[in-house]
Amino acid sequence: MRQYTHLLLGGLVASSMLLSGCSSSPTGRQQMLLFSENDMSQMGAQSFEQLKQQEKISTDAKKQQYVQCVTDAITAKVGPLEGFDKWEVVVFDSDQVNAFALPGGKIGVYTGLLKVATNQDQLATVIGHEIGHVLAQHSNERLSRSQLADAGLKITGAAIGGSQYSNAAMAGLGLGVQYGILMPYGRAQESESDIIGLKLMAEAGFDPTQSVALWKNMAKASGGNQPPELLSTHPSHDTRIDDLNESIASLPAYNQPKPSCEL
To answer: Distance between CA 92 and CA 67 in Å, rounded?
Structure first.
């Protein structure tokens, strides 16, 4: 009886969390958000400060100015957001082909990316995409799912503890959680950020067709080592390029002057 009581109470808690956290993303996708924007901004700021202490910050003023120029053009189209006053941009001296944006307006770009994003429009593709994660509150969504999954595992453990379920069954449950809930930025979120970022860069005056060129560069740089799409947090390069081409075709014409950011 105690096991069923734990399961019932856990189910009621989970249902309450779901009802209190229902929301919609900028593209209309249903989300579960359990944390406030101020909470997320605080977490993002704290993580960014730790990262700045751990990673080597570039001393190349020209690269910093270049990345700042592209970022400023895009964030000018975002407007004010709850939890912070302005975006902070840091260039990290690393061969990583990567960039990120955190809640609280924190943006990091690794110098390795500048070798693959070969012009301002391609860099704008990446920065717009990362800002898209922030605007769509993907970190909140991921943490919310993680919290609910953790509660679910405890509930399941109480329900099946001492039964005939084997370690293999529990491992199977863990695999399901890993690839179904806890994957950092699932493919739906990545595709959504592509759409948001594409619109932002186009509004800022950058060439959206260069997003396709960027991902062709990414595919070339990866050397064919991308994992299978089913087990990847990102869509395959081919899928991403096809989706971008479709989105580009539906973009309205923008009359914004083209930014002039040079490295």
So the answer is: 11
